[in-house]
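User: Can you help me understand a structure? I only have the sequence.
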Amino acid sequence: MTPLVQGSGGVELPPVVWAAHAVASLLELSHVHMPVAFYGLQRVLILLLAAALLFMPRRWHGRTGLIITGVVSLVMLNIELVVLVSNQLWLPMAVPVLFLLSAQAVLFARRAFLMSAGQQLKELAEVRRDYAGTLKNQGRLDEAFTQYRRSPRYRGLLEPLYELGLAFESRRQFAKAIAVFTYAAQIKPSFRDIRGRMKRLKKVEAGLGAKPIAGGSPGTKTVILNDSGIENPMLGHYRLERELGRGAMAVVYLATDEKLGRKVAVKALSLTDEFQGEALQEAQERFRREAEAAARLSHPNIVTVYETGIDHDLEYIVMDYAEGESLEDYTDSDDLLTVWEVLDAGAQVADALDYAHERQVVHRDVKPSNLIYDRETGMIKVTDFGIACLTDNSRTRTGTVLGTPSYMSPEQASGKKLDGRSDLFSLGVTLYQLFTGRLPFVGDSFANLIYRITTQKHPAIKKIRPRLNANISRIINRTLQKDPEQRYDSGAELSEALLRCQDKVRRTRKVASRA
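Assistant: Let's start by predicting it. Here is the structure, written out as C-alpha cells:
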C-alpha cells in the first residue's frame, strides 16, 4: 500500500495525487513565485532598517526600542503573508526581520552595559566629589582641585568647582582661582558668572584690582580689593570685611570668625615682597614680640589676642574686636571729650598699663591712636603691642629708638633701657593732648623734637585751658617729669590719682550746680 503524504492543513494524500495537483497549479498559473525585483527590495529594506537604527534616538535603545522593533517586525511579517495569500508572491521579509531583531538586541545589550558602567562612573565621581569637598573644608584646596580633575566631568561638579574657585579667590590665590573657573567653563561655559569672574581675576593678576594706600609703609598694602565682584579675602578661617586702621608695620581689619560667627580684629603683615633681609627679620621679630607680649595679658582694658597664624604670604594676629573709635578722633580742639571722660579713660589706661608692667611688658607706643574708646559705654582698650618690650627678656636691646616721636619719654628718645614709667610719660602726653587739643612737645624736625622732649619743660596746661582743675595740672606735671624717679611709681598710683581727681571734679560740679 502506498504511504500517504501529509500536506498543508493536515490533509493526507498519496504522492501521485500531490503531483497531479502540482501539475494542475503550474498549468493554471496559480503557483507561488518570487520576482527577481524582490531580492533587490529585500536588500534595500535591510539598508533602510540599518539607517533607521543608526539614527534612532538613544533613549529608544532600551525597552521602547524593543517594543517598536517588535511591532515593526510583526507588521513586516503580516505584509509578507498578505502578499503571499492574495497574489501568490513571496516577499522575503524573514531576513530583514531577523536583522532588525538582532540589531535591536545588540543595542539593548550595549545600552544596559553602558548604563551599568555609567552608574559606576557616577558613583565614583560622587565619591571623589565628596572627598574633594572634605579636603576643601579642611583648607586643603590644591588637593581638592586635584580630586575634581580626576573625577569624570559632569554637571554635578559645577557648583563644587565654583565654591572651590571662590575659596581660592578669598585666599588671594587668583591664578589658582582662574584655573578652577576655567576647568568649570569646560563643562558649562555659561555657568553662573564664571566668565565675568575670570575676567576680573585676570585684571587682578595683572595688578589692576588691588589698590595700595598711598604712602603706606612696607607691609601695609591692603588686601581688600576695590571690586565688589571679588570675594573678600580669608586668613585662616577669618573673612576680612573692611580695614579698621594701619600702623607702621601692619594693617588691621574687621573680620568674621567663620567657625564661631563672631567679629574679630585681624592684624596682618605682608612678608613677601614688602620686606627683605634685615627688614624682614625685624618685621617678623616685632610681630613675634607682639604675640608674645599679648599672650601674657588678660585684662578688660587690653585687647585680647586669640591666636596667630600664617596664611599664604601674610602673617596675622587675631584679636578681640573693640567697639568704638581711637582717641585720636578726640584730639582736635573743637571736638574734645569732657574732662570727666578724659579722667575716666586715663584711669582705665593707667590700670591696664599697671597690669602689663607687673607682667614685665612695656608697651612703648602709648598714644591716642592705640587707645580704642567706646563713648557709649565709657570702656577703653589698649591695643598694638607691636613694639612692646619684655623687661625680663635678655634679648631686649638698648640703644634702639622705637615708638612715635611726639609721645616718647626722654629715656625712650635717648635709647635708654625702659621700664613702665616710660609708658606713664607717654600716657601723660596723651592726656595733655586730650585736654587741650595740643601736644606738649613739638619741633620743626625730629632732632629738634627730641631735644625739647629731653631738655625743655612742657607748656603749663593751665595756660592753654585755664578753667581746668588744679589737680589735673599737678597730675600732668608729674607724669611729664624728665626724671622717671619723679613720676608716678606705677600705673596703679596714677590711676588712683586720676580717679580722685575725677571725684573732686564731680563734687565741684555738684557744688556749682547748687549755687
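Now, to help you interpret it: Confidence is low (pLDDT under 50) at residues 208-219, 392-401. The radius of gyration is 45 Å. Let me know which part you'd like to focus on.
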